[in-house]
Amino acid sequence: MIKPQWVIGACVGLLLCGNIAAEGLEKIKEKGALRVALYKDFPPYSFVDAEQKTRGIDVDIARALAAKLGVSMNQMPVTAGESMVDDLRNSVWKGHYLGGGVADVMLHVPVDARFAEDNPKVKIFAPYFQEQVTLAYNPKRIPNLPSLQVLLDHKVGVELDSVASVFLTSTMQGLLRNSVKHYPKFTDALVAFQKGEVSAVMGQRGQIESGLAKDQPVIYSESPMPGLIQKWTVGLAVKADNPVLATELEQAMKALQKDGTLAKIFAEYHVNYAAAEEVKH
Amino acid sequence: MNHYFKSTPLKAQIASILMACALSSTPTVFAKGVTDADIQNDTTTPGDVVSYGMGLRAQRHSPLDKINKDTVKHLVPAWAFSYGDEKQRGQEAQPLVYNGKIFVTASYSRMFAVDAKTGQELWQYDHRLPDGILPCCDVVNRGAALYDNLVIFGTLDAQLVALDQDTGKVVWKEKADDYKAGYSYTAAPIIVNGKVITGVAGGEFGIVGRVDARDAKTGKLVWTRPVIEGHMGYMVDKDGNKKDNGMTGDAIGKTWPGDMWKYGGGATWLGGTYDADTNLLFFGTGNPAPWNSHTRPGDNLYTASTLAINPDTGKIVWHYQTSPNDSWDFDGVNEFIPFDFEKDGKTIKAGAKADRNGFFYVLDRTNGKLLSASKFLPDLNWAEGIDLKTGRPIEKAGMRPGNPSDAKDGKKGTSAFTIPSFLGGKNWMPMAYSPDTGYFYVPSNDWGMDIWNEPVTYKKGAAYLGAGFTIKPIHDDHIGVLRAIDPTNGKIVWEQKNVAPLWGGVLSTAGGLVFTGTPEGYLKAFDAKTGEELWKFQTGSGVVGVPVTWEQDGEQFVAVPSGWGGAVPLWGGDVAKKINHLNQGGSLWVFKLHAN
Q1: pLDDT digits over A69-108, tens only?
Q2: Are residues B523 and B537 in contact, defined by beta-carbon separation less than 8 angstroms?
Q3: Do B536 and B434 sit in the same domain of this protein?
Q4: Which member of A78, A209, B122, B578 has the greatest number of CB atoms within 10 A?
């Protein structure tokens, strides 16, 4: 079925928690914490590491933003739904019908005029990173990739139900379908790439850069991918009726960018920082 | 958590100790325990309801006739029972009645045992749900199964739980699957010859549907049958050793491209039926994954199909696919109801299914051959009909959404308007069959959807090639329609419209009555022959549960859960306008004839 995806939070299970609502800036400061919606299982942006510690680029950015506001960061883990429209509704403006409340701000929200139009209940702002979906290949396996047709003789690892999967299985009348190997998680595809089980992987650049060992020989494809939006910008989202918080967060994000904090955070996770300004809209 | 009474935990503890003592000193005097024979004969023993479907064929027909066309006007509430709590979501269950007790499941994986005469609670079981469960369409539960002294049901975190009928204590608990991987369980299990038979639910791409058989007394797995071509089934022996039991389908991924059979979907989320004549289980399978059909050309067997499975061996005997290469989320889980009819002096062993895709199919249940197919949704527009030779739909052109990767410059692709919508001509709510009238009573919905490819969507922070869809009513005065269908010719004999979509099950009785509920809160009774509305009662919240009837101390009773919810209110658009005002609830209503 096509489904609205949702999660029962700890609060719901126990039916103990009060009404957690997105707060105005004053209340956030009074409370001393900024509640931030961050995707679960999304390395290197937000994930739980082997020592059960929550880590990631977005986690660190969220902490830095909260610090700029003079408060601590309180994380609200989000399980991705079939569409981010669901995620924004459940995490930012309405809250899930089962309870658990909403966050003050969500990270990794695409800054895209049409997407914003489709989601009038939130304000999307403070672009902080340019995302890119790309194909990376092992030059020892594939010396040259002038066109995607070369992949006919190779296996490409992708995450189940990701844009890379949909694209590769449907582009060129499905010519490449048999070349695609699906993995439940993108990190599994990266492991397969390192082991040589696949000659290429396709996914988000940050995930590839962060997930591959430094000495892994890899080339990023320049081949055109018709029909696919390859680059987009991500920013923050707050409830549309919370302009004061938006302004303050926007200033905080600018400051983090200016003083090099953002670039430093990305570097810690071995991701080349692509500033949002580079994107032309 | 297990509450014996609505009281303080201390009182509850004392009560449970007292009850445990009482039980240990007086071993089950009254309850002989539900036997396989009781279950097989459920249809003809009106003193109890020991199975989902009121018999394993799930015809939902009772031989009781004290409540009939003449007396139904005297039908009044005997009592009502509130589920309490803040957990007022959709109440889609069918109650069970045995040994003077009613067993009914409720939203959030709860179960209540209630005294059938007085409506007093005997015990309550609240399943402790973990964080991060991913069920699909509301936190519903559709009912339980009875066996021996057990009452068995599935939970939102994909566990099967067997409780003692007298105490509500857990006797066994088995993990049906991993809720973290997106599995869930909401259907009512069935019991066939000592085995509890279940499917799996789960919406996440990556799951594969299957049918499992377990020892009903212990919960231990006996066999498992994946429903997607290429996956191996296996049996488990007494020592817990797995043994290969043959592959599903003819060859690995024969009707799937690449490795997509590995994660093909086909969730068996609605459970199944059983026919003793042919010794076959009938299970419907869900839609293929991923959603975009352009990525998986081929029939994608055995998604959107009905499978006949031998309960002793766990092997598939036949299959019939209703929506090959499903592009609309028509799914195929709807119940397949075995029934016999006479044709040219011969008895035909048939079975019928009102599919989500809007067609009413009659198959030869011995071999899965199509006998007839008709539109139970007169407005159905995605196919001309079903080819009787091949059994395949004759699709109309332009009714599938385009390939999103063909979109130019990120523009929205062409839109198709299809009837029915993805919520189906009929969704989960079970129909009934009356051997008296020979009609099926189908709770259906007249609605369509705009569906288009959407190159600019986002998923988990990333660009995505998806689809957009909006459900729309197609008539001003109604969405829901209860339809009586003559399976011998596929004709709609009568229909009764309802403003809101119908979402509850149907009950047929020898009193010449058909009962069903409405989201507006009514339980209604209709004349089984003419469709005339003879009686209705306002229960205070939407009725999306399944009514049952039984006899106790010479009186006939009717019970139905009330509590609006399920998948419909989760969807917006024009349909929301017809249901936004409906209030939630959670109660069990029991009716009987007024004593003059």
Answers
A1: 999 999 999 988 888 999 999 999 998 877 778 999 999 9
A2: yes
A3: yes
A4: A78
